[in-house]
UniProtKB/TrEMBL annotation, chains A, B:
Organism: Sinomonas terricola
Domain of life of the source: Bacteria
PANTHER family associated with the record: TRANSCRIPTIONAL REGULATOR YQJI, TRANSCRIPTIONAL REGULATORY PROTEIN
Domain Transcription regulator PadR N-terminal residues, every copy: 7-80
Annotated Gene3D superfamilies: Winged helix-like DNA-binding domain superfamily/Winged helix DNA-binding domain (1.10.10.10)
Alphabetical list of InterPro entries matching this protein: Tscrpt_reg_PadR_N (IPR005149), WH-like_DNA-bd_sf (IPR036388), WH_DNA-bd_sf (IPR036390)
Name the UniProt record assigns to this protein: PadR family transcriptional regulator
Length: 195, 195
DNA sequence: GAGCTCATGTAAGAAGTTACATGATTTG
DNA sequence: CAAATCATGTAACTTCTTACATGAGCTC
């Protein structure tokens, strides 16, 4: 159900078309939740059927049209209900740790590449999230700007702070991944792999 | 494909029945990878068809039988190929961070409960993994004992070290989650939620 | 012999991935 | 006018979850 709530979260800032949502999933919100277009369009239709959002066909260019969805009161209620419900944790499923546990079967060079790739991946994510935090802090983020429009300074600060805090959590975790992978590189150098 | 590789990883230590695998997924290996029995039995059958493992029907009690699977040479090769291949990262999909980013819509009490649940969950996982590391370090872990049987001290140390290292990675990440959630509690206290 | 463990499934459905497909509009 | 962007899908498949189902063996 998180996809549905990610969509509701987005639509609390402003009405959007499926394509707008798709774009957001590739950048901003996509840094915490991603979904492909093949998942987005059908889900939006289902949500409209369930009354959580309402779609309005608006003209686009001369002949084209597009469908813009707005969150309904029932949608806001459903979103808040989700936020107020205790989280459910899924069982662990960590392919990276699974691999690491069996590196005695791997070639040392491949193991080193594996850790280097891990460091690179998480470094790139940190750069994304730091940039995101920057645009949140200086309010140059258009979605945030729309969101805090007409709100008091206190409210604007609160809205911003939670978003920054979420991305800070992502960064902190990625930093631990990098430190772990660096330890992994040392380990591989010291122990090697298959004999 | 990680389920398949988790199964191969397990079977590198010793032949096992589907039920043995299921048990392991509830404890030891289950702390990095989990799968329900409804996924395990069909996957083992598919792996046998693909020649990665071979099943042997052995008697169990007076009339009962069970099927014990052993990894084949092709299975070891496939497992090593996976270990030697660069990792693929899936797009982010983090329900906890998604929620955190929108806590201005939640009730402060529910937000605090959310962070407290997060701390509790990760504290429990740390306890599991620390216990796991203990049984690996003192070689009282039966699966590890089987795995290092007849191996040199150096090899035994290497095998153990990678497993300990993997669990240490899980612990490090969980500790960051706890620290983040503690910051979250402060934030909620300072900022509150919906007005 | 009751209750737990060992053993092995099926079935329905939700969630997510990958590939294929099409057409209008805007921009350089 | 070509290329990029906007717009919206379908189809097949894999993965995972949840629930239902059954029966033998072992232990107290």
């Amino acid at each position: 159900m998180s996809l549905r709530n990610a969509l509701l979260a987005m639509l609390t800032s402003q009405p959007m078309t499926g394509y707008d949502v798709y774009k957001n999933f590739q950048t901003s919100v996509g840094y915490v939740w991603h979904a492909p277009d093949s998942q987005i369009y059908p889900e939006l239709r289902r949500m409209e059927q369930d009354g959580l959002i309402s779609g309005e066909t608006v003209p686009w260019g001369k002949r084209g049209t597009k469908k813009r969805y707005s969150i309904t009161d029932a949608g806001v209620e459903s979103f808040q209900e989700w936020l107020n419900t205790p989280p459910e944790y899924q069982r662990e499923r960590d392919p990276v740790r699974l691999r690491a546990a069996y590196l005695e079967w791997a070639e040392p060079a491949a193991s080193a590449d594996f850790f280097r790739a891990h460091i690179e991946y998480h470094s790139a994510r940190i750069a994304d999230w730091e940039e995101m935090i920057r645009t949140l802090r200086d309010h140059s983020n258009p979605t945030l700007a729309r969101r805090i429009e007409g709100k008091s300074d206190e409210e604007a600060e609160r809205i911003t702070a939670y978003k920054v805090f979420a991305y800070e959590g992502m960064i902190a975790r990625a930093e631990v991944e990098i430190a772990w992978a660096e330890k992994g590189l040392e380990l591989v150098e010291r122990l090697g792999g298959q004999s």
